[in-house]
Amino acid sequence: MQRAAPRLWGAAAGWRRHLATGVTSASRGRGSDGPASVAALARSGAGAYVGGGGQPGAPGAPPLVVHNPYTGGRVATLSDGGAPAAAAATAAAAGAATAWAATPTANRAAAVGRWADALDAAAGDLAAVLVAEGGKTLADAAAEVAYATSYLRYYATAAAAAHVEAVTPIDLSDGGGGTGVVTKEPVGVVAAITPWNFPLAMLARKVAPAVLAGCTVVAKPAAETPLSALALARLAPLPPGVVNVVATADAAAVGDTWMAAGAVRKVTFTGSTGVGVGLARAAAGTGKRVSLELGGLAPLIVTADADLPAAVGGLLAARLRCSGQTCISPGRVYVHRSVVGAFASALADGLAAAAAPGDPAVEPPDGATRVGPLIHSGAVHKVQALVRDALDGGATLVTGGTVVPAADGGGDAGHVVTPALLTGVTDRMRLFQEEAFGPVFPLSPFDTLDEVVGRANSLPVGLAAYVYAGDPATGRALAARLQAGMVGVGSVALSDARVPFGGVRLSGVGREGGLPGLDPYLELKYTLLG
Ligand code: ADP
Fold first, then answer.
1. Dist. CA 195 → ligand 1 center (Å)
2. For ligand 1, what atom is nearest to the CA of residue 194?
């Protein structure tokens, strides 16, 4: 759909700046044949990396086949070690734990820094892996590699090492006790379970602080996207057993093995609420620590006096990122009634001009954002069902919502949905109750700030929220009232290795990133010196 240039954003087009953010890698997903390449990972065929090497599959177990979500083609066929590989990984991690914990923190930090260097050197290969297994666009894949590397860089800094090493003396002499000394120790073996939407970055965000803290790791990637996790482990310049990966189609078998293992002292999970809550229950049996990063359904609030081009640009950037498949994606857009018409019109124009649905491995036209495939046909059906539900309830589809046929027209392929803009969405519709996890832009008008705060806080989740307000004081006041772990005021670029990422209520437990992101991997020890 082509439209005349809208009055609202004109030549200065704030949204173009937003869309350009984060697309910096020159490599743009062009792979070679290094150890982290699709070719090398497929050739190896090992679905587990345990004790510093590939692990054979369980006898008789069917292989784990990795498909390209866009082409439907087979990317790799991996051995699936299932529960036996999970047990072997636990043994390897437990075996490596004592020596790694005793390694000076400065040396561990240096190793994490070399790991970041290895990711930089393999950036093109890693981006190609993300395009092949996850259907990421070239830009999203390059941005994810950079994001993953930033966690390794951050946890290689002297500030992070100092946080691990910090010793706090407390004078207790007035109570006759002497001096209390508080030190930190690694918790031990950590189980990390990660989703398919950021398979490299979510794992890097967990293993970097864990390894710096002196922990060892057993990790399970999603069955859809195992190659990037295997690549990350293969690139780690760490002693055997410090980082182990088990890819499997039987997530429950691996998860159950680790949750039951006394040697595993912590679980860190990113994924759906149901699975996370189940893991937390199972982890309780052996007294494990638990960190959960679960879903959300982020509200984005646009006040009557907001800078509409900036708000449209922010929404486009945040919602088109990974074709809407991010947990902090703004899925509920509340716009003041006095400007909702203008906002919808500008958003439609922005989508027509900037969104380029199609092959994720092909560069979009200059200045446009490629909208790639959803992860599988189930995800497409979910988007379609939620849009249908809204239309049945009286919402209006302004544009989009169609499925682009796969290039070859056959098999389980394609999965590209054109960005859908809906107006007149209400809180009772499924789009405002569940994550669509796709490129859907549902708009709903509001009248008062009290009303919109109440509506934004009405779900049991609270991961991210966004505010565009003309008056900065109003923006900050709204941010303070929103029940979310993270709020972007006038910006959607929340993700950064230096800040604590996480949610409240059913969106999760704990934070990842920044110095607070180290604490879940550290036990405090109080020693009384009399
Ligand atoms: P999504 O709906 O995004 O696929 P999931 O919560 O199902 O989210 O998946 C996130 C991660 O949790 C994946 O690695 C998946 O394999 C894993 N997982 C799913 N079920 C279980 C389970 N019962 N035990 C352990 N891990 C699981």
1. 7
2. 14
The length of the chain is 530
130 Cα distance to chain centroid: 13
Q: Give the Cα-Cα-Cα angle 140, 142, 148 (nearest 5 degrees).
A: 95
**Does residue 252 have its Cβ closer than 6 Å to ligand 1?**
yes
More confident residue, 26 or 346: 346
Q: How far apart are the first and last CA of the chain?
A: 77
Rounded distance from Cα 521 to ligand 1 centre (Å)? 22
- Of these residues, 144, 224, 293, 512, which one is catalytic? 293
Q: Please name the residues in contact with 411: beta carbons below 8 A apart, sequence gap of 6 or more.
A: 72
For 171, the token pair is 């004078």
Average pLDDT, the chain: 93
From the CB of residue 221, how many other CB atoms can be counted at a distance below 10 Å? 29
Alpha carbon distance 506, 486 (integer Å): 14
Task: Please tell me if the CB atom of residue 223 comes closer than 6 angstroms to any atom of ligand 1.
Answer: yes
Give the residue, out of 193, 264, 293, with the most ligand 1 atoms within 8 A of its beta carbon, to mutate for a pocket test.
193
pLDDT in tens, 103-131: 999 999 999 999 999 999 999 999 999 99
Residue 180: CB atoms within 10 Å? 15
363 belongs to the catalytic site: no
Q: How far is it, in rounded angstroms, from Cα 258 to Cα 190?
A: 9
| Residues with Cβ within 8 Å of residue 107, at least 6 apart in sequence | none
Q: Judge whether 228 and 200 are in contact, CB under 8 Å.
A: yes
Interior CA angle at 88 toward 151 and 155, to 5°?
Answer: 15
